[in-house]
Amino acid sequence: MKTQLKTNKNISPVENVKLFQACETNDLRKSYNKLWTPIKEEAIEIVERVGGSVISKYKSKAYYIEIAKKNTTRFDVTSFKEKHPELYNDFLVDGESIELKTKIVK
To answer: Is-contact 22 100, C-beta < 8 A?
Structure first.
C-alpha cells in the first residue's frame, strides 16, 4: 500500500520549483560524493606516480589535474575532553545546526 503525501498549499508555483530543484541538487550531490571518494584515491595514486601534475586530452577536451597538499593542524577535542573534562564543559556553547533533509519519491 502506497503512502500518500500531503501537498503544501502555502507555497507559490515558483517556490515549488525552487524547492524541487533543491531536492534534486541535494540528491545529485549525495550521489557524486559517494562516487568521488574512490575516484579521488585512484587519481591521487596516478598523479603522484607521474610527478604531481598532469596535462592531457581526452575526447577532444583538454584537462589539467594537480595534487595540492597543505599542512593543517586541528584541535584534538577528544584528547582535551579526556584530560580536562571540567574545562571542556565550561567552554561548551549551545548552538543550532540546520540541515535540509530531502527525498524525491519516484
So the answer is: yes
pTM: 0.59
User: What CA–CA distance (Å, rounded) separates 71 from 103?
Assistant: 38
Q: Compute the distance between CA of residue 21 and CA of residue 17 in angstroms, rounded to an integer.
A: 6
Strands annotated E in the chain? 53-58, 61-66
Q: Residues 93, 14: contact at Cβ < 8 Å? A: no
**Cα dist from 33 to 2, 28, 59, whole Å:** 30, 9, 24
Q: What is the largest CA-CA distance in the chain?
A: 62
Number of alpha carbons in the 13 Å side-chain half-sphere of residue 26: 12
Residue-wise pLDDT tens digits, 35-52? 988 999 999 999 999 999
**What is the distance in angstroms between the CA of the first residue and the CA of the last residue of the chain?**
15
Beta-ladder partners of 64? 55
Are 26 and 100 spatial neighbours (Cβ–Cβ below 8 Å)? Answer: yes
